[in-house]
Design a protein that fits this description.
alpha/beta; 6-stranded mixed sheet; 5-stranded mixed sheet
Length: 212
């Protein structure tokens, strides 16, 4: 195990915001902003090594030790329950997991509710607390189509502004849980790089978004 901190960042705009936080906290790596096809970016000065991965894969890289730390949405942590330490709520990437469906939909408790979602574990857990019998339909994209085409009664999905729902004559009914991005750590790395990881956490706290 070398003395570099291996950091998995989620690709996309969220990852760019995350990197800006790290840079402001003193963990910059100028090469990451260069226009290149490189996959790994290092700063010998700050002893950090960054790499971009698909947001849903960050926790996998961290859990299996390819990354010491990473940033993953609370939705991923709740859905897949990776064996990692959750260190900080960064307060960015705010959205919510919600139940939504066609405007005017009324649930009939006498029949099984059809629920389309990318998050079957979260959906099942929510409806279990309500003792509601459901049939989960696992989809990987275009969740909003499911109730429109009659594939499902409702959907359980991430809602940020609600614009896509409104544009498709859908509306959110219930919020399940709030979602933000979390700093997570590999359990072995946290043991052997504890001083460095704790210092990074302390350095980045001032740049975490606080609830208004």
């Amino acid at each position: 195990m070398d003395d570099f901190m291996n950091i998995a960042l989620p690709k996309g705009r969220l990852g760019e915001k995350v990197y800006d936080m790290f840079e402001k906290a003193g963990y910059g790596c100028p090469s990451i902003k260069e226009d290149s096809r490189k996959l790994i970016f290092e700063s010998a000065e700050h002893k950090v090594r960054y790499f971009w991965v698909k947001p849903s894969d960050v926790s996998i890289y961290v859990e299996h030790g390819a990354a010491d730390i990473g940033v993953a949405g609370r939705d991923i942590l709740l859905e897949y329950s990776p064996d990692v330490f959750e260190l900080l709520d960064l307060g960015i990437g705010k959205c919510r997991m919600a139940v939504a469906g066609k405007k005017g939909f009324v649930d009939d408790p006498s029949r099984t509710l059809r629920v389309a979602t990318k998050f079957p574990h979260i959906a099942a857990g929510y409806y279990r607390t309500l003792s509601r019998e459901i049939d989960i339909i696992k989809l990987n994209g275009s969740i909003e189509l499911a109730p429109i085409l009659g594939l499902s009664d409702v959907i359980v999905d991430i809602v940020e502004t609600g614009t896509t729902l409104r544009e498709n004559n859908l509306e959110p009914f219930y919020d399940i849980v709030g979602i933000t991005s979390r700093l997570i750590a590999n359990k072995v790395s946290f043991r052997f790089k504890n001083t460095a990881i704790n210092k990074l956490c302390s350095d980045i706290i001032p740049y975490c978004k606080k609830d208004s």
